[in-house]
Amino acid sequence: MKLIKVILASLSLVSALAAQTITVAAAANMKYAVTDIAKEFSKETGIEVKIITGASGKLTQQIMSGAPYDAFLSADVEYPAKLANGGYTTTPSQIYAYGTLILWSDTGADLSKGVAVVADPSVKKIALANPKTAPYGIEAMNAMKYYKVAGDAAPKIITAESISQVGAYVTTKAVDVGFMAKSIVLAPDMKNVGKWVEVDDKAYNTIDQAMVGLKNGSPENQIAAKKFLRYMSSPKAITILKANGYGLPKK
C-alpha cells in the first residue's frame, strides 16, 4: 500500500512539473521569434510558455502594476533597468539581441529614396510605434531627425500602440509607409507583403534588446523563467534570432 502511495505521489509530481507554464512578456517585434524559441524550449524542457506581446513601455507598466509575468524580453535596455531599479527582477538585465529598423510599404511608395520618402507629397500617412512606450518608435523619430525630414513628416504621422499595430496599418494600406522591425517583415506570413528597405544604422541609436526574470510569479516559475532566459543564448535560439534578422551579442 505504501509503495502504491509513493508511486501515485511520484506520478502526481511528474504531472505537475509537465503541466508547468510560465508567462513571458515580450516586445511586439519579438512576436514571431519568441514563439519559435518557446516551442523549442518546451520540447526540450516540458515547460509550456505563454507569450504576451506589446509595447515595451506598456508591458513595463503592467509588470509594475503586478501583472503575473515571469520574464520580460524588452526592445531596449532602459525598461529592464527601470524594473531592476524598482526591485521587480530576479536576474540582471542581459542583452539578447540587436534590432534593425526598416521602412515598409504596400502602396508602391518609392522606397529607393530611403527615409527621405516620408517628406514626399505622395506620402500622406506614416505609421510608427508610439515613441512614449515603444523603442522602435523612438528610433523612427531619430531616423527622421537625422535625415532632416521630421518636420515634413510630423503632420502625416499615425501613432500606433506597438510595432504590431504598425504592421496592421501597412498591410491594410491604411498608411503609405511604416517604420517597422526587420524581424516582422521576415516572418513567413509577412515576407511577401509589399516592399521594405533597411534604415541606415547611422541614423538611429543601436536597438539593444534586453531581458530580465521577474518576481511577480511563483518561486517555481521564477526558476523555470531563469531556464528560459538561459535558453535564449542556446544554439537553437541563436539560429532563430538570426533567421529573424536580429544581430547577436558577442560572447
Short description:
Helix content is 40%, strand content 21%.
Secondary structure topology:
Layout: H1 2-18, E1 21-27, H2 31-45, E2 48-54, H3 56-64, E3 71-73, H4 78-85, E4 94-99, E5 101-105, E6 126-129, H5 135-146, H6 150-153, E7 157-160, H7 163-171, E8 177-181, H8 182-185, E9 195-198, E10 207-213, H9 219-231, H10 235-243
Parallel strand pairs: 1-2, 1-3, 6-7, 6-8
Antiparallel strand pairs: 3-10, 4-10, 5-8, 5-9
User: Which sequence of strands runs across the widest sheet?
Assistant: 2-1-3-10-4
Number of strands: 10
Strand content: 15-25%
First and last CA, distance: 54 Å
Radius of gyration: 20 Å
- Largest sheet features: 5 strands, mixed
User: What pattern of helices and strands is seen along the backbone?
Assistant: HEHEHEHEEEHHEHEHEEHH
Inertia-based shape: elongated
**Alpha-beta content class:** alpha/beta
Number of domains: 2
Helix content: 25-40%
CATH fold assignment of the largest domain: D-Maltodextrin-Binding Protein, domain 2
Helix segment count?
10
User: Segments where pLDDT lies below 50 for 5+ residues?
Assistant: 11-17
